[in-house]
């Protein structure tokens, strides 16, 4: 756990540096509010652990890890506007704190800072761009053409959540100069972890306590959003079993990767197990 904390501290330190360097001060304050108010930092940790698994270092991957966290945070700002959610990570969401216009500008600012971190590497830019295209399709689908079956839901989950997870792992492999097969295997691992994460998130929205979760619950049902509980006839227990299946397939993809650092690989395995068991 000490080594995980060192990696997390590296991410937090670089995040602070990026945020503090933003001008003007009003934008920096808004970005600081949404970026430094907490969060699990799952995606940047995936980036660093993927890099270390195939022989790179945390320092090799931290820029890309911070970049993907900024992209993720930008997407949350927009999600909260769409959902009219006033709470995020236990504090006020961007639009609730600053208004709709400043929140949109905050999202734009986050994306600008993120792409500055990817700009020097064409492969990194491609991985993130592909993920954002998928994310955009997923968000549009959620608003305009809701899925009507479990298969359609899974496609949406892959686009809405799995794509950024995939990019996170691919970025780690790219930072370590991995071959295309390794990049793909780590990408598949992370995409399936992301889908499992989304399924579990939907279950928690349906059954968890809002105070313990750190954000409002019941939004999916109230807004008729396409959660796994709303789209399918699955019970929460059955949905959790689907999440477990995705986690198992993630581990099978990870098995295709030759691990230069078994400890980092073990942490990736533990993450696939954690996402289906988490309570927050």
Automatic annotation (TrEMBL):
Pfam families: polyprenyl_synt
Superkingdom, natural source: Archaea
Co-factor(s): Mg(2+)
One Gene Ontology term of the molecular function aspect: metal ion binding
GO terms under biological process: isoprenoid biosynthetic process
InterPro entries (UniProt xref): Isoprenoid_synthase_dom_sf (IPR008949), Polyprenyl_synt (IPR000092), Polyprenyl_synt_CS (IPR033749)
Alphabetized UniProt keyword annotations: Isoprene biosynthesis, Magnesium, Metal-binding, Transferase
Family: Belongs to the FPP/GGPP synthase family.
Protein name: Polyprenyl synthetase
Lineage summary: Archaea, Methanobacteriati, Methanobacteriota, Stenosarchaea group, Halobacteria
């Amino acid at each position: 756990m000490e080594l995980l904390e060192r990696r997390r501290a590296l991410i937090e330190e670089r995040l602070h540096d990026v945020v503090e360097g933003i001008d003007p001060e009003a934008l920096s304050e808004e970005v600081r509010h949404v970026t430094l108010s907490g969060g699990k930092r799952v995606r940047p940790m995936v980036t660093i652990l993927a890099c270390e698994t195939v022989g790179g270092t945390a320092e090799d991957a931290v820029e890309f890890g911070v970049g993907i966290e900024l992209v993720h945070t930008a997407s949350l700002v927009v999600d909260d506007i769409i959902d009219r959610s006033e709470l995020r990570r236990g504090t006020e969401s961007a639009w609730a704190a600053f208004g709709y216009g400043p929140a949109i500008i905050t999202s734009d600012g986050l994306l600008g800072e993120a792409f500055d971190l990817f700009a020097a590497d064409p492969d990194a830019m491609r991985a993130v761009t592909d993920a954002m295209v998928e994310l955009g399709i997923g968000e549009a689908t959620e608003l305009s053409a809701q899925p009507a079956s479990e298969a359609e839901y899974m496609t949406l989950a892959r686009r809405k959540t799995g794509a950024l997870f995939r990019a996170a792992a691919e970025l780690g492999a790219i930072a370590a100069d991995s071959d295309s097969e390794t990049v793909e295997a780590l990408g598949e691992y992370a995409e399936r972890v992301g889908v499992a994460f989304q399924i579990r998130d939907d279950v928690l929205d349906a059954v968890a306590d809002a105070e313990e979760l750190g954000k409002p619950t019941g939004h999916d049902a109230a807004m008729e959003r396409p959660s796994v509980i709303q789209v399918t006839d699955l019970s929460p227990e059955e949905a959790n079993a689907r999440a477990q299946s995705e986690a198992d397939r993630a581990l099978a993809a990870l098995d295709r990767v030759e691990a230069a650092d078994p400890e980092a690989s073990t942490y990736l395995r533990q993450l696939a197990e954690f996402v289906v068991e988490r309570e927050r």
